[in-house]
Amino acid sequence: MAGTRPIFTRTMAATDVITIAGTEGVSTISILCKTDNSGSNGITVLGTLGIGAVASNAITLLADESLTVSASNGGDISSLTITAGESSTGIVTGC
Fold it and tell me: Is position 6 within any domain?
């Protein structure tokens, strides 16, 4: 059917890593941290784009926090790494 896209769904367990390299055709991804080992770990999200002289750094989601990343103008996300910390779990969906 024209205009449809498959959907990615994944439950993350402790220490799981999902890497988007830009060849997967992912334009939007949502990450929910379910558990975070009492606030000591969580799920980190790291992009690679720099803005001027400012480099990207990791964002840490703790329990019940979420983040959605979307590429603009119908493009694809080119580089993003999602890592579940030790004893942390999460849910990731994307298209």
Answer: no
CATH number of the domain where residue 69 is located: 2.60.120
Angle (CA) 78 89 42, round 5°: 75
Please tell me the distance from the alpha carbon of residue 29 to that of residue 70, in angstroms, as a whole number. Answer: 7
Going by C-alpha positions, the residue among 23, 38, 20 that lies closest to residue 83 is 20
Question: What's the pTM?
Answer: 0.91
What mean pLDDT comes out for the span 44-69?
96
Range of the domain at 38: 13-94
Q: Look at the chain and report how many structural domains it folds into.
A: 1
